[in-house]
Every structure is written in structure tokens, then in C-alpha cells.
Amino acid sequence: MALPSNLLPDEASPEWMNKGDNAWQLTAATLVGLQSIPGLVILYGSMVKKKWAINSAFMALYAFAMVLVCWVAWGFRMSFGDKLVFFLGKPAVALDEKFLLGRAFLGYFPTATMVFFQSVFAAITLVLIAGALLGRMNFRAWILFVPLWFTLSYTIAAFSIWSPEGWLAKLGVIDFAGGFVIHLSSGVAGFTAAFWVGPRAEKDRHNFPPNNIILMLAGAGLLWMGWSGFNGGAPFAASTISALAVLNTHICTATSLLTWLLLDNFFFGKPSVLGAIQGMITGLVCITPAAGVVQCWAAIIMGIISGSVPWYTMMVLHNKVKLLKLVDDPMAIFHTHAIAGALGGILTGFFAVPKLCRLFYMVSDWEKYLGLAYGLEYGRTSAGFKQMGIQLAAMLFVIILNIVMTSIICWLIGLIVPLRLSDEELELGDDAVHGEQAFALCHDREKFVTSKHNKVYDTDDFSYVASKSIGDIQMV
């Protein structure tokens, strides 16, 4: 029987390409991109003090743009290309149509689709790191940090864990969609960078209220719903595993949010919106390495754990451990991403179902992927403990990699520009750093245009005005 004309292969739709998979992969990539732009841009911009709204949102916007350019220039092939060493691929561009229109190394879609899909994962990792540095990092230092950290840290973790040639991938580590590569990396790197950059101004550390909680919820909602693409796109196919991954993601997240809410209400007497958002994030992060390879009931258990353990580390241990109190992490990236990401990786090693791993990886040696719970059930205890060992080894590798590389990068940048803003800039915030103010109303127009810092734009026609002092400003 002949195929319908729209399904017949042609030069633009070769025989190896599955149009449904390609469409889903591009959609999933776009959903992940929307988590950063505008999701985290809105979340960061509304979750901080009013005077830091522009700077916080702009750090996320810049990181997203810079990573995409670095990705096609050298990053994709360092992360997924030909092996240079056991933990890194050979740097090369991903710009030629012959390369981009060929079949991707996995899946039934073009390499161009894979490049775009993986680029938004790389980008959101840097955007997450920014959350630990809000309210005090020199923007010029951030401009340097993003491409350096992306090149020297992210590509190594991605190749080691996700590339078929990576050493941890060959060992059999299970990281479904980035619990180690993205969340543990961003949590550890953000915490390490926050240590080197230093804290916010003292009064900001003690008084840093969100400027718009309703808008903050909108950003959080984009982040949550966008995770359908984050985890649902990991199988590189519109498959049963993709559907399971999406369902598990939302079940775990809802459970985690409710667990955090109950703990806040029980111990502090009031349910907190901020707490609910933190619980949402920890659930999303925890399920990421396991989304398509665990049972739905396991996702609920993971949600309970991800809503309680990070709550304890943030609300109790944070005030008792000297290092946690010393390092200024305004968005609690360490707790929501490092702790939750590590928990997810360990729990994946316990709950991973052999059959689901076979359907996800589709490799001949799929039997090496075995959660400890099923190893105990099937009489393969040693194989189950081996999987747990591999998960712990990957976790340790990512932690050490990010502590070392992030420290080196911060030291190098510190030789060129200050990592931290000056006291005057810390006092004034956006107006000093960018010459702009968030929420400038009509009656604030003259004040905005006559800002003495950096550059200004007329609020009516956006004409550019450059000045060095207040006396140089003229109304446009």
C-alpha cells in the first residue's frame, strides 16, 4: 500500500527522518528555551529586591544568548562530537549545512534539531548559576564567566555523562535529562562562584524582599510547564517513555510542592508562596535524572523526599553549618539544585526499572542499567550496588569538576576585572550598573532620563543619550 504523499521521502525529508519525532524535539527544545527566556528572566527579575530587578533579569538574558553562540562555535562538538580524550570531544564548529542536515548521532531527526535541543540545556545551566550570584556580581565579570565556565566545565560533564563516547556513559550512569549534568553542576558551580564573588551588601542580605510575587509565580509556572520539554524530550522520540517522563515529572513536582507547603505550615504556622516555589523546583530537579526510567509510584516517593530533605537543609542546616551561612546564595541554588540533583541521582540508582531503561537506551547491553531495588528483587544484588556506585562516582566527579574549574575561572577573571561590584554600585543597584530602572512610571520619566550612570534612553522614542554626569543630560 502506498504512503500518503505527505509521508513520502524527498530531499528535504529523507527516509531516515521521522517527522513526528522531529516536530516533538523542536517543540521540546522550545519549551526548554521558554524556561529561561522568559521563565527565569521573570522569576529572577521579580524575586529580588526592586533595585536589582533589571540586573538579575539581564544576567539570565545575556547568559542564554552567549551560550547559544558558543554552542554552535565549539561547544556542541566538544560535548557530543568525536572523542579528544575520555572526558571531552574535539572542538569544532556546528555551522555547515552538510553537518547540520545529516542524521543526528541519536534519534530520527537532523543534527540541526539535536544542536538546538542541546543548546537550550547548556544555556539554562548558566542561567541557573546566575541565581547564586544575583545582587552583587560585576556584570563585566559575568560576561567573561559565562563562556569560560561553559567551555571548561559544562562540556566536560556533558561529554562524560551524555555522549556515547563518554567514560561515565560507558560505565552505565543513568542521567535521564540532566540531574548531574545540569542541576548538580549548576548548584555546585553557583555555590562555589558565590564564595569567590563574596556576599551582597549587608543590608541586602538581611532585607531582600521580592518586588512582585504574582509575577514571580508566572515565571515559576513557565519553569514548571516547560519541564514537559525538558524531560519529555530526553528520549529523542515521541514515544511511550517520553509520555511517562512527562507524567512522572508533574507528579513528583506536585508532591514535592505539597510536602514543602505542609512542612512550612506545620513548623512556621503559615503556608509560604516562596516556599511552595522552592518545593516545586526541588521536585523538578529531583525527578530529572529518573523521569522516564522509574515507576509513577516511585516519582511520588521522590517528590516526598525532594520536598523534605532540601527543606531541612535550607531551613535548619543552613543556619547551623558555618560554610552555608558564610556563602551568600540568594536564590538557594545550592539547596534546590545541588542537594535536589544529588538526591535525584542517588534515587535513580535505587528505583531505575530495567525494562524502562531498555526502552529508553535501546542498546544491546541494556541489562547493566539496574536500580538497586530491582537488583534486590531479582537476585542481582551486586549489579544493583554497582549501579549505585556508578551514580555516586558520577556525582563525585561532577562536584570535584565544578569546584575546581569554577575556582580557577573566578581566579582568572579576578585578575582582569573585579568579581564584585563596588560599594556605591551595591548601594544603588540597577541605576548604577545599567543606568536603567525597573518599573519607571510616567512621572518618573525625567528622573530616569537624567540618570547620571552609564547610558540612558528616552522613554518616548528610545533615542540614545550618552553622558558622564548629570549636567550633561538634556531632555531628548
From TrEMBL:
<feature type="transmembrane region" description="Helical">
    <location>
        <begin position="141"/>
        <end position="162"/>
    </location>
</feature>
<dbReference type="InterPro" id="IPR001905">
    <property type="entry name" value="Ammonium_transpt"/>
</dbReference>
<protein>
    <recommendedName>
        <fullName>Ammonium transporter</fullName>
    </recommendedName>
</protein>
<keyword id="KW-1133">Transmembrane helix</keyword>
<dbReference type="GO" id="GO:0005886">
    <property type="term" value="C:plasma membrane"/>
</dbReference>
<keyword id="KW-0812">Transmembrane</keyword>
<feature type="transmembrane region" description="Helical">
    <location>
        <begin position="52"/>
        <end position="74"/>
    </location>
</feature>
<dbReference type="InterPro" id="IPR002229">
    <property type="entry name" value="RhesusRHD"/>
</dbReference>
<feature type="transmembrane region" description="Helical">
    <location>
        <begin position="392"/>
        <end position="417"/>
    </location>
</feature>
<comment type="similarity">
    <text>Belongs to the ammonia transporter channel (TC 1.A.11.2) family.</text>
</comment>
<keyword id="KW-0472">Membrane</keyword>
<feature type="transmembrane region" description="Helical">
    <location>
        <begin position="23"/>
        <end position="45"/>
    </location>
</feature>
<dbReference type="InterPro" id="IPR029020">
    <property type="entry name" value="Ammonium/urea_transptr"/>
</dbReference>
<feature type="transmembrane region" description="Helical">
    <location>
        <begin position="284"/>
        <end position="312"/>
    </location>
</feature>
<feature type="domain" description="Ammonium transporter AmtB-like">
    <location>
        <begin position="23"/>
        <end position="439"/>
    </location>
</feature>
<dbReference type="InterPro" id="IPR018047">
    <property type="entry name" value="Ammonium_transpt_CS"/>
</dbReference>
<feature type="transmembrane region" description="Helical">
    <location>
        <begin position="174"/>
        <end position="198"/>
    </location>
</feature>
<feature type="transmembrane region" description="Helical">
    <location>
        <begin position="236"/>
        <end position="263"/>
    </location>
</feature>
<dbReference type="GO" id="GO:0008519">
    <property type="term" value="F:ammonium channel activity"/>
</dbReference>
<dbReference type="Pfam" id="PF00909">
    <property type="entry name" value="Ammonium_transp"/>
</dbReference>
<keyword id="KW-0813">Transport</keyword>
<feature type="transmembrane region" description="Helical">
    <location>
        <begin position="332"/>
        <end position="353"/>
    </location>
</feature>
<feature type="transmembrane region" description="Helical">
    <location>
        <begin position="115"/>
        <end position="134"/>
    </location>
</feature>
<feature type="transmembrane region" description="Helical">
    <location>
        <begin position="210"/>
        <end position="230"/>
    </location>
</feature>
<dbReference type="InterPro" id="IPR024041">
    <property type="entry name" value="NH4_transpt_AmtB-like_dom"/>
</dbReference>
<keyword id="KW-0924">Ammonia transport</keyword>
